[in-house]
Structure formats: structure tokens, C-alpha cells
Write a structure and sequence with these properties.
Length: 306
């Protein structure tokens, strides 16, 4: 599930310096939050930062060109990590004055990034001894998890406050959490894409493969640690550290993802979808689905049918 961010109120027309990439900046000790707002269609607008940048879409649509590769659609609920001095070329196919495109670009100091990585590698080593915490630049386009989206929203709220003594401290703490959430999101999505290839060398990749293979069956949470040759306590702790989500919640999200696929196919009724997705109780399935999506499975299926 993509987690959306809270957009800023559009700038009044009289305050815009330019209709393309109007910029508002909020500077703090370890980072700078830039809010970009675009009010007319444009192509190949260049943007470069001297620090690593986390960009996140707030509203509208962009087409992003990076690393000399073909452009890709960039939508709300998504983030893109851009290395220092890398030029983004951006198209704005839908921007207009009444419906501006809006995104943030958070420039993070190299010193803060290294401090956070050193702390994590020392205090919370990865489950595989040969791996370390790092920002995966190859995994530069991510879907925001709820945890990542919440942290970005919190940092935005801190950034726009009037300067107070505690503002830089609050931003420092939120920025550290943001980096952890980002790396957890990347780690999850990296394994989602490569669990078959990595299954023989990474115990959690092997576990993800087991869960996906058996998602329609009853999975005993209290026996999962045996699949990765860890104690039960260590397994639950390390899984949550590395992916930012508990094993039980991961299984639930996988079942809900599968349920959405079945609902969109229109080939099954709600009861059949429930059991095909690994749920053992229809009422629990409907309740969990509504909590995740804000609608019942029947409503979701009806919308997909239109």
C-alpha cells in the first residue's frame, strides 16, 4: 500500500516567482526541505542538488528522467532518492494553475547520513553478517509505506514551524527516523523483487519465499523462526528492525494484496476471495480489508468493475 503525504496549500498566484518550479525552502541544521510547486505544463526542467535528496510527490503527476534512462511516471505515495550532483530532468504533463503539481525535495547532509549509518551498523547489525545498513541507490524509486509516509509528514510539520530552540533537535530526531524508515522500505522492496534469487544466501529472502508460497495456507507464526534458524525472540526483533514491520503484519499485508488481485479479476465472490487469500474467517477478512483500504471488499470490487 502506498502511503500518501499531506500536500501544502497551493501558493496564491501573486506570490509565484515563476509558474514552473516555484520553490519555498525551510533550512535546518542537518537538512533543507524544499517545496516545489508547478502551475503550468513543462518538459525537461533540470534540478540538481549538492547533497543526497529524498523527493516525495504530494499532488499531481511528474515524469522523471534519471541516470540517462527512459522517464517514468512519478505519483503521490511515491518517493525517489537522488544522489548528490545528479541532475533530474522533469516533465509536468498535467500541471495547471487550478491544479498545481507539488512535491518536496529533502536535501540531507552527508555528515548526518554517515553518522546514522555508523550508529545502526554498530548498535543494530544486519541479520546477515556480510551486510550493512546503507541507502540503496539502485533502489531509488520506492512506494511509501505507512511508516515512511508518517515520518515524512512529521518532518514537514516540524520544518514549517517558526524557529524555536527545539526545532533543530526535533528535526534531527525525525530525520534519523526517516532514514531508518527509508532503508527498511528499500530492504523490503529489494527482497520482494529478488527473494527467489537471494533465497539461498539470505535467510529472510528464504522466509519471504516460504510465506509467498504458502500464503493461502495457515502459517504458524510461532514456528517461522525455525525456517531461518534463529531463536523466536531474535527472529521477531530482527525482522522488525530490518523491514519496519512485524512478521504477522507482513503476512496480513501479503494476504490483502492477494485479495485485491482476486477482487480485480472479477472471477470470484467475496467469500471465495477470503479463503483464496489465506484468511480463515470471513468477518475478520472484511474488517482487515476495510481498515487497510477504507472500504469493504464488495465496494472495492464494484469500483474496479466500473
Amino acid at each position: 500500500m502506498k502511503s500518501g503525504l499531506q500536500p501544502f496549500l497551493p501558493s496564491p498566484e501573486r506570490s509565484l516567482y515563476t509558474l514552473v518550479e516555484n520553490r519555498t525552502a525551510f533550512t535546518m541544521e542537518k537538512c533543507e526541505l524544499n517545496v516545489f510547486e508547478t502551475h503550468q505544463r513543462a518538459e525537461r526542467v533540470n534540478l540538481t542538488f549538492g547533497d543526497l535528496v529524498l523527493t516525495s510527490m504530494l499532488r499531481g503527476k511528474k515524469v522523471m528522467h534519471l541516470f540517462g534512462e527512459p522517464g517514468f511516471d512519478y505519483l503521490p505515495g511515491e518517493s525517489v532518492i537522488v544522489p548528490p550532483h545528479e541532475t533530474m530532468q522533469i516533465d509536468f504533463p498535467e500541471a495547471q494553475l487550478s491544479n498545481p503539481t507539488q512535491c518536496i525535495a529533502l536535501a540531507i547532509s552527508a555528515e548526518h547520513i554517515q553518522e546514522t549509518l555508523n550508529l545502526l551498523n554498530e548498535k543494530f547489525p544486519k541479520v546477515e553478517a556480510h551486510q550493512q545498513w546503507k541507502i540503496e541507490e539502485a533502489m531509488f524509486h520506492v512506494n511509501n509505506t505507512q511508516e515512511l509516509g508518517d515520518t515524512i509528514n512529521r518532518l514537514m510539520r516540524i520544518s514549517v514551524q517558526e524557529h524555536r530552540k527545539e526545532k533543530d533537535l526535533l528535526a534531527h530526531l525525525a530525520l534519523r527516523e526517516l532514514m531508518i524508515r527509508l532503508m527498511q522500505t528499500q530492504a523490503r522492496q529489494l527482497l520482494e523483487l529478488n527473494y527467489v534469487r537471494m533465497g539461498s544466501s539470505h535467510r529472510f529472502a528464504h522466509l519471504i519465499q516460504y510465506i509467498k508460497t504458502n500464503i493461502r495456507e495457515k502459517i504458524d507464526l510461532n514456528r517461522l523462526h525455525e525456517k531461518v534458524c534463529m531463536s523466536r525472540a531474535s527472529f521477531f526483533r530482527k525482522f522488525k528492525e530490518e523491514f519496519g514491520i512485524a512478521p504477522g503484519d507482513y503476512i496480513l499485508q501479503e494476504r490483502l494484496r492477494l485479495a485485491k488481485e482476486h477482487l480485480r479479476s472479477m472471477r470470484h465472490n467475496i467469500t471465495e476471495v477470503c479463503y483464496l487469500s489465506g484468511f480463515q474467517n470471513l468477518h475478520y477478512f472484511i474488517r482487515a480489508f476495510k481498515k487497510e483500504t477504507g472500504m469493504t471488499p464488495k465496494t472495492y470490487q464494484s469500483i474496479c468493475q466500473k
